[in-house]
Design goal:
The protein is α/β, with parallel strands linked by helices. It folds into three domains: 167 residues, Ribosomal Protein S5, domain 2; 200 residues, Rossmann fold (3-Layer(aba) Sandwich); 70 residues, no CATH class. The strands form six sheets. A five-stranded parallel β-sheet has the order 11-14-17-10-18. A four-stranded mixed β-sheet has the order 1-2-4-3. A three-stranded parallel β-sheet has the order 5-8-9, with helices on both faces. It is elongated and about 85 Å long.
Amino acid sequence: MALGRAHSVAVTGVDGLLVEIEADIGQGLPSVHLVGLPDTALQESRDRVRSAVANSGEKWPDGRVILALSPATLPKIGSVYDIALATAVLDASGAIPSDRLAKTVLLGELALDGRIRRVRGILPAVITARNAGWQTVIVPESAMAEAGLVDGITVYGAASLRTLVAWLRGEGVLAEPDGALPDVVRSGGDLSEVVGQEEARWALEVAAAGGHHLLLTGPPGIGKTMLAQRLPSLLPPLSETEALEVTAIHSVAGALSCDQPLITMPPFVAPHHSTSAAAMVGGGSGSARPGAVSRAHRGVLFLDECAEIGTKVLEAMRTPLEEGEVRIARRDGVARYPARFQLILAANPCPCAPARDIDCICAPLARRRYLGKLSGPLMDRIDIWVQMHGHIGAGFGTEAAESSATVRDRVAAARRLALQRWHEYGWLTNAEVPGHVLRQHFRLPRESVAPVEAALRLGRLSARGADRAIRVAWTISDLRGADLPSAQDVMSALNFRQRGAQ
């Protein structure tokens, strides 16, 4: 009897857990048995691994091979364990020494000819290995740039099982990441391309400065989509911690580009209005994958034609909007994905969507039903509502509109003020501050909050809505460089919200 060991990582959500792989070669008819709750892809790895070992010039054992993955109670999903399974078998047969193997975590899928292919979730897996105290990790050569983003652990890239075995024997070298990242260019257009719509531009600036959610309504062709697409150009770059967090989510989703291994700009995600609830918040059979709300983490989620989106899909976003996190329970466990995003909604005022309200041919009930999909609880979580109107001759003005760079400077200054105020609490923007903190530790003068209290007494505003109006007031105050919101700031913020109640 011979026993070999190797180690890999199981990724659930954006969290990982070390997996120990044991290979036992015993007497009996030649066969391969895989235990430890493998899924279908992992069950099929028996044939992939056996062919890859043989085609790499190594000998597969003639006896009965048992491969055990522990913890045994943890469901194992995917093909990330392939090279760990192969090296465990070679270790058990005595084909490779165990000195380097015992100190290394292995991640990657095997092709039948022994090539090592890229898999999802490399970045969170490498972070897990580093946090568990491992010194070395082997990844597919095509994923070196992604894995090299993690400090504190040595990363090597292997192109094939043959080169990996040579390195384990001390007879060869593996590639290492060079640490170079491509230059990042902002995309999505410039705010100067939007002519007119001063009120909507101001609302977009407030939303960018405070991380607030925004609803734009108006006839088609008026610029709602143009404004939403230019919101990322107003946001500051992601910090190092935020960039790693966002990149890890996109790595698990399989949406990470080889040319851009690190996401440094706020992502912009715009799903089609026919998207499902699972595609929006995450889901899938077995282990849940991140949805649009998680891929938009620390960025913008834009829902165009939101009145055409299914009610269940819209209501599924209520918890992520409030908590900044998605927890999806499936057969194989609970997956947790961060979802701290800015929601931008755009909708026509009615189904016929005329250029002028007087030309509408919809019945009153149809108009009410059209925007009625945006329920009260969902609308209560939207900070700013802007109704856009057309302007005759707006496209022929001679004055140049402000560029994104100019507005971005004001947004960055306002965010710096907010960060100084909330840094000790761990919040980055005004939109993240809990309401009880605003009421107890940052209470505004009574004359400033009098309009909010009046709206509460009249039933025009909920307690959540009052908190959100105060957050928007803090953002307006930061944009003008003040230390405290004035009564006018609170009125402006309240006016943004009361538009949704009209």
